[in-house]
Specification:
The complex is a heterodimer of chains A (242) and B (457). Chain A has 242 residues and is an alpha/beta fold. Chain A has 8 helices and 11 strands. The longest helix of chain B has 21 residues. The mean pLDDT of chain B is 94. Classes of the chains: A alpha/beta (242), B alpha/beta (457). The interface between A and B is large, with 37 and 41 residues.
Chain lengths: 242, 457
């Protein structure tokens, strides 16, 4: 989406939709200029451009016992996946984590659609004091048969999840969110290394086998415009921008 | 008679500081003088050289007489994008190549005259021709680049209801995201597109056919579909280090600048790396555009690395000259083999080998061969890969029954119809990356075939 004539195109996850009403739900965290501007919009306001859905849909089938792990704003894409996986006959265990309890989202929704829900916060303000991977490790130790792990969130978290499941050979899918421009496979800004090969997240992904993704490389590429992003924010989000 | 009237240009030292247009256009006097050079041959070769068949001697005769309104009317009969073609067509390989004057001296500057009458018309304001009666037939056009625009305009003029779908937020395709402001001002593209809207073409941006709507869904709603989705997939060299920060595909580099306005950052939100030492790999117009854009962003040194020699470069001579005037350096017979980064993952150097030319290959150009032990490195902080684009695979991947070649292009018959009934295609998605005017030519052909196809229905 692009908020205004001078705006950047940014990729956001569709958290929910209502085909009858013709609406979709986007969840975003106010971090950079575009998301801060989005946060200033009021009911009835318009954004200039929107296109989607892009990328490939999640493959939903019966796997058995599935653990869905979301971190931070990445939790936004967990309910749709968890719900569909549940409807396909899977046992769905969800783990969501955030830095602190104020940043936890969608707890209620996930409570309804998950067979079990675990919460973690980095500062211990709610649920388990620690990381989502602590819960994952415990689950793996307690019940041997986990058939699939789905993870969305900060790269460092997805990397940690992949590292936990790898020795146990548990199939793990990570949904990536690198820097994009067009979102149609045209530019390659979102290229990631999967199994040593270059893939475009926008058209080949966004989901990849987490055991094959080069997360360190992704982290490096996510920092390409840190200086510019800071500058953009420092200039302030003025009235002219909305 | 022997020499052309030169077109005024921005001084190289000044123009590398801005993104304004380089060539400034003829004055009316200059245009008339240039038009007077035309011999009005009884069997004009120029028309045959034009992929859309513009009646060139006629419009030039009108310029000579000072009747610019009639001149542009003649051009527009065949060409819906004259202000664009007048700027970016490789005239030297088309109409001007067959000009009789060119045999002994310099050909008539047909392209510059085309540009002159188109600019004259735009400044004066477009005349809206009356809309034709509706046939009740509906055609979907996918992709709003040169091919799609041509098909849309031709069919709308015949009274068909045309909906033009564009994936990006602005219509124009490569004219908007690819060709930079200094060669083709976006204001001109917007004006030409506004003109086709006046014919009744409805434009829907932000719709990705093959993703948000499938081609089959379009077929349910429309009597025919034209696919002109272009060659949008960047090619890579497949060498180590291509994923480093500071390595761009030319598509990303130019899209950030042209479509997103990154050269105006931070006024515009999209950033771009302002490299100081930039290497551009490739020898086509896209490579020239990237190099010259990098220079305007503030690079101290921009070098084009090309594995063959100047003779084999596919860029227009005019663009190579412009680049050279602006201080772009060329390293010919140079093939990058590795891109080296620093500890933070940013580009630092590019390693290359020298080449020599061997026997001609399939393209008829002499094949470059690696000279052993000729490795050397160049210090760079930005690398732009401009070695070509492949057809965009989104539609072929998501549509059944669409025959595709090994190169990913769509297979069409002599009328531009694909293997799927009612689905036509043209432009780079069929030919592979080519020129604006060739895509327009393919669009014209397909428009005629689509008209016949739906009229019979």
């Amino acid at each position: 989406m692009r908020i205004d004539e001078k705006g950047e195109r940014i990729p956001l996850t569709i958290a929910d939709f209502d085909a009858q009403k013709g609406t979709i739900t986007l969840i975003f965290q106010e971090i950079g200029k575009t998301t801060k501007l989005l946060g200033l919009l009021k009911e009835g306001d318009r954004i200039l451009d929107f296109m989607g859905p892009l990328g490939n849909p999640t493959k939903i089938e019966k796997y058995g016992r599935v653990v869905c792990i979301g971190g931070g704003v990445g939790v936004a894409s967990i309910p749709l996946k968890a719900k569909a996986l549940g409807e396909a006959g899977n046992e769905v265990i969800s783990i969501i984590g955030a830095r602190t309890k104020e940043l936890l989202i969608l707890e209620e929704e996930l409570q309804k659609i998950s067979d079990e829900l675990y919460i973690t916060t980095d500062d211990g303000s709610k649920g388990h004091h620690g990381f989502v991977t602590d819960i994952l490790k415990k689950l793996i130790d307690e019940r041997k048969n986990i058939d699939l792990v789905v993870t969305v969130g900060p790269v460092i978290m997805m990397k940690a999840v992949a590292n936990v499941t790898r020795p146990h050979n548990i199939r793990t899918i990570a949904s990536l969110n690198p820097i994009m421009v067009d979102g149609t496979g045209m530019c390659g800004s979102c290229r990631v290394r999967v199994d040593g090969r270059t893939q475009f997240t926008c058209v080949d992904g966004p989901e990849f086998d987490a055991h094959r993704v080069d997360f360190d490389h992704l982290m490096t590429r996510l920092q390409r415009y840190l200086t510019e992003e800071k500058l953009s924010l420092e200039r302030g989000v003025g009235k002219d921008d909305v | 008679m022997t020499f052309r009237i030169p077109m005024p240009e921005q001084d190289p030292e000044k123009r590398i500081q801005n993104f304004g247009e380089v060539a400034l256009g003829y004055s009316a006097d200059q245009a008339v003088s240039e038009a007077k050079r035309c011999l009005q041959c009884s069997e004009p070769g120029c028309i045959k050289g034009c992929p859309v068949g513009v009646d060139i001697p006629d419009f030039i005769e009108c310029i000579k007489e000072g009747n610019f309104d009639e001149a542009i009317r003649i051009v527009r009969q065949k060409n819906h994008l004259p202000a664009i073609c007048g700027r970016v067509c490789p005239h030297e390989n088309q109409c001007e190549k067959f000009c009789l004057l060119g045999k002994k001296g310099e050909s008539v500057s047909i392209g510059k005259l085309e540009r002159f009458v188109a600019d004259y018309e735009r400044q004066k304001g477009f005349k809206i021709s009356s809309k034709p009666t509706s046939t009740g037939k509906k055609v979907a056009v996918v992709g709003s680049g040169p091919a799609g625009i041509t098909v849309s305009a031709d069919l709308a003029k015949l009274g068909h209801g045309v909906t033009l779908f564009e994936a990006l937020h602005a219509p124009g395709g490569v004219l908007i995201y690819g060709i930079p402001e200094f060669r083709l001002p976006k204001e001109i593209v917007r004006a030409e597109i506004d003109c086709i809207k006046k014919f009744g073409v409805s434009i829907k941006t932000g719709v990705v056919i093959g993703k948000t709507i499938s081609l089959d869904e379009l077929l349910e709603e429309f009597d025919a579909v034209f696919v002109g989705s272009g060659a949008g997939l960047p090619r890579w060299m497949d060498i180590p280090g291509e994923d480093l920060c500071g390595v761009y595909s030319a598509n990303e580099f130019l899209t950030r600048i042209n479509l997103m306005g990154a050269y105006l950052f931070p006024e515009y939100d999209t950033p771009i790396r302002e490299g100081k030492k930039v290497a551009v790999v490739g020898g086509g117009n896209v490579a020239m555009d990237s190099a010259r854009a990098a220079l305007r962003l503030g690079a101290n040194e921009v070098c084009i690395l090309y594995r063959r020699t100047e003779k084999e470069m596919t860029a227009r001579q005019e663009e190579i000259e412009h680049a050279r005037e602006e201080g772009i350096k060329f390293k010919f017979l140079t093939l990058p083999t590795k891109i080296l980064g620093d500890e933070k993952g940013w580009v630092k150097k590019i390693e290359c080998v020298l080449m020599e030319l061997g026997e001609p290959d399939k393209s008829g150009r002499r094949k470059p061969l690696i000279i052993k032990n000729s490795e050397f490195t160049i210090d760079v902080d930005t690398v732009i890969v401009a070695i070509g684009q492949s057809p965009n695979p989104l539609i072929s991947r998501t549509t059944e029954g669409l025959q595709v070649t090994e190169r990913g292009t769509l297979v069409v018959d002599g009328n531009g119809m694909t293997s799927k009934e009612g689905v036509f295609a043209g432009g780079d998605i069929v030919s592979g990356a080519a020129t604006v005017i060739e895509s327009m030519g393919a669009g014209k052909l397909a428009a005629r075939a689509i008209h016949e196809h739906i009229s019979q229905k």
